[in-house]
Amino acid sequence: MTKLAMPMQARILQWWQARSNRERTILLAWGAVVALLLMWFGVVAPLNQRIATLEKRIPELETQLNRMRAQPTGSPSAARPAGTVDGDLRSTLYGWLAERKLSAELRTLSSSRVEMRLPELPAKEALDVLDALRQEYGTRIAVVNLRGNAEPGSAVRIVAELERTP
Fold first, then answer.
1. Whole-number Å distance between alpha carbons of 98 and 53
2. DSSP secondary structure letter of residue 117
3. How far is CA 166 from CA 38, 53, 107, 111, in A?
4. pLDDT tens digit string along 118-155?
5. Which phi and psi angles does 21 have, rounded to 5°?
6. Which of 11, 78, 94, 134 is the residue whose CA sits 20 to 30 A from 34?
7. pTM greater than 0.90 (yes/no)
8. What backbone torsions phi and psi does residue 75 show, to the nearest 5 degrees?
């Protein structure tokens, strides 16, 4: 140990030994109470709050995800706007994103499959974007990867693989 640490430890030990047994007991009890309060307000209360938030949010997110994964029941071509049936999926998605002034990174995986990386958006808004694409263009969401915090108002990043259904 350093030279400065030893005198400090010695002074603390000397101060502690100068206390009576009753004073030591009271100081230890107060120290335990302070440690428990710090533990409660620093660890337990924030975790309980986060758990409560997730308990409220997860069922809603699962419902949205299941709705997006569901196959369209009608003819997918009927759900597509006029003039977009013959275009490739990537161009169609770029046009749709441009109309709504959204930016996303699109990468063609095959002639009927595109990977879309959305920027950080609020969780509900990002899932609504995917749901709108599914409904308007008859796309099927093959893979969804969410990164981020699902708390209300927090942002998530979504990477999704979309494919045009035949």
1. 34
2. E
3. 60, 40, 20, 12
4. 888 887 888 888 888 888 877 888 888 888 776 667 78
5. -60, -40
6. 11
7. no
8. -70, 125
Cβ contact 145:158 at 8 Å: yes
Sign (positive/negative) of CA torsion 74, 78, 79, 84?
A: positive
CA distances from 162 to 5, 9, 82, 150, 157 (A): 63, 65, 20, 22, 16
Instruction: Using alpha carbons, list the distances in angstroms from residue 136 to 54, 76, 113.
Output: 30, 9, 16
Residue-wise pLDDT tens digits, 54-108 = 898 888 887 777 666 554 444 444 444 443 444 678 888 888 887 887 878 888 8
